Amino acid sequence: MNALTPRPTFVRTVLQTLASGTSVLLVGLPGSGRSTVLAGAQAEADDDGWTVVTLRGTGTGDSGGAGERPLEALVLAGLTTGPTGTLGALAAALEGVTVAAGGARRSSADRRVLVVVDDADLLDDASASVVATVVARTGARVLASARPPASGASVARLLAGPDSTVLNMPALPFDELHRTVTEILRADVDPDTAGRLYALSGGMPGLTRAIAREARRSADLAEPGRHPGAEHWSWTPGWAVVVDRLLAGLDDSARDGLRTLAAVGPAPTAEVRRLVPWSVVETLDDHGLLRMVEDDGEVLVALFPPMLTEHLLHLAQDARGLRVAETISETFAGSARELGSRRRPRTTPSWSSSPESAAILGRRLEDRASAHLLVAHDTWERDPTVHSTVLYLDALLASHAEVDVIEDAVGVALRRLRPAAHEHRGFVVAWHAVYRAHVLHDVSGAYARLAELDADDDPRVRATSDAVRQHLRLTTGDPQAPAPAEATAPAPAPLPPPADLPDDTGRPTNALVRLVRGEVLLARGLPVDAHAELVGGVLPAHAPRHDAISLVDQAVLLSGDIDTATRSAMRSLGEARGTLAQGEIEPHGYVVALGLYVAGRLTTLREHLTSLFALGSPAPLRTTTRAGLLSLSVSLALLEGNLASARSSLARLEEMDLAAMFTPAARPGSRRAALDVATGADPRQATREAWDDVAALVERGAVLAAVTDGTTLVDLWVDEERATALADLTLTSQGAVLPALGRYLRAAADGAPDGLLVAAADLRSHGLVLHATSAHARAVTLLSREGPTARATEERARLRAAVEQAGEELSLVVPSLAPALSLTGRELEVARLVAEGLSNREVADRLVVSERTVDNHVYRIFRKLGIRSRNEVAALL
């Protein structure tokens, strides 16, 4: 489906439910994609041989759908003539719909009638009664849509049959939103911008389209042909059209309640009760315009979708808005609402990871950043310690402060530090250096800043400078490395610990040094040693930064305990979301994404990436995790054939251009090669530069980066010499992951099916399901080149069984194994009968349909599977 709509798998779920004999009601707000899903399901059902009758409710929504024009929906659908309200008109309408449904006397084996009703909640009572009668007569199934609360007599009549269910419209996956917005704007859209759009729309397709088109129009008004910038993605008056649809059917008290809740933002239920009558809250909740989310043990009430809040806040200066402001002021007079950070909970908070909750949380993070900046500035003004200084600088960065503001703040902070804190001034300079390198992309300037500390008498200051310099070499590469004509630059050696530092004053410096040493050890492929160092670098809960925690989980993952590392990172991510710790969300989220990716859990990975990008909460000073998320997003998009999204994410990844030696899957080279191959480039030529990059990483001793990139490249083109060199490099690696990947690289370089099958079993035993599937598929390909041998057939069957057992859309890795995924349910049924050897006439008799219908199905099956004979159907299925 090319339209912006929930995934085709959702349409397939709807069709499977209908085929089982159950009617379906789709419930979603205006803009959720209800009508598009209905159209897609209707087209698929028509292809499958259903008799389809369609109509649409046309009421105003103010009277429960009853309307004042009986049979209006049937007249507009062409199923009867003008209504008169008499029994004769009802009889005529009944006859018209019955005829459209194929007659009243259908055999039990052929009851494949589908009545599709869009906006069923707006259907007039007379039309609903006629349709319900026809459904009862013909045994038809109903596929209807309605907006919340999806109640009323018309909906009840339509679904009065023995079997019916309700399906809520799902949010749009981020990659599909990204692709469609790119197509609307006819230009690449970076993931941060797409994340902002997702956060506004809550993943609702219609809202996404409206916001994107308004941004396009706003940019064209300013300068025709101009690509929309950040300023165009904010509110415009055109949003009123979309918002009015969301508010249809609400009375004045409910609209006033919306204005109040928009003004206060996500608020505890106790505060909401003081501001808005609870009956109004219930009405808004019934209409799908509220979400209840748990935060630090209390339930918050938030408007949904977030663009609703944004739009209503822009109306704050009208008469109703001024009245709302007065009400809030009077209600909270004498009591201050909390602006500071919340306490860290003892248990994992309950912010849902759903895209809807992520969109709400993204808005809350923005509000929190502004409030936290005020608190951090006040604390720093009163007590300018290194702790308060770093927190203040972090708050400025999280609030998107201008460069000159941050530069001025750094200068003032260094001058105001207490004399007793001199030994820690290195932390402020280090912060500034990392900021210049990662945010301003001024790596040389960052090194120059650190050089100012080299002559300091305090060993703590020098140790801090050395550690940060080492960190920048690992993340960005070293611009001061020797020229190619000189000796190759080795990977930087692990830093020595600072000597003779008392525990009380030296702990932050020691923790920083151990953190960087852990990064070095990870880069060298020694995750077990890295884990020991990183655990020693974890700071207490009250510390301003906790960079080591996500790297501890990464070390556990690379040591071989993928499941434990993923679960631990999920818990840390939940805590970061619950405490609104903006800078910790993406680092933990990256480890979760990496674990899901290597385990082949692609469905969960898609949902996870959607939630993270919807949050729009990057960690600016920890860019390797953002690079890793972009890289995994590119890989997933390529597996899905979503080239537009892959291209946009890759463009941002290439802009970052990080070495990221201690981060798997964070460099653009192998992903660029994969995109080029996907768009038709010669694999050998497309991968040449990326293999050169891998060779350079090997020379630097960056084992982790080289091996993980090389493993991606062998799935595109095998450079035997370099793949073998990578395999040799893993012989001294620690843990289970890198050695297993090394054995796969060696087997790929040897090109022997037996070796690849052994490698596949090895990878699968260590939880590396995605790589195991690739290795197994490569072995099957090599066996198949020898001809249709029993061995090739057996291994193909084993691979198919493994993929089906794993689920999670692992078939995306080997699309040739799952041709049935491209077929509709009816086409698959026909294909299986053809594979049994039945003729088209025999298939038609079996399914009680016409031979012409079967002919059409067989034609589409051949076209979708790319085959020319009936024998090939059996071979594929």
UniProtKB/TrEMBL annotation:
Pfam family, one: GerE
UniProt key word Nucleotidyltransferase: no
Transmembrane stretches, start-end: none
HTH luxR-type domain sequence ranges: 816-877
InterPro entries: P-loop_NTPase, Sig_transdc_resp-reg_C-effctor, Tscrpt_reg_LuxR_C, WH-like_DNA-bd_sf
Listed Low complexity bias regions: 347-356, 478-490
UniProt GO molecular function: DNA binding
Gene Ontology biological-process annotations: regulation of DNA-templated transcription
Gene3D superfamilies: Winged helix-like DNA-binding domain superfamily/Winged helix DNA-binding domain
UniProt keyword annotations, A-Z: DNA-binding, Transcription, Transcription regulation
Residue span of region Disordered: 336-356, 474-508
Tagged with keyword Transcription regulation: yes
Biased composition regions of type Pro residues, renumbered to the chain: 491-500
CDD domains: LuxR_C_like
Annotated PANTHER family: DNA-BINDING TRANSCRIPTIONAL ACTIVATOR DEVR_DOSR
Protein name, UniProt field: LuxR C-terminal-related transcriptional regulator
Organism: Sanguibacter biliveldensis
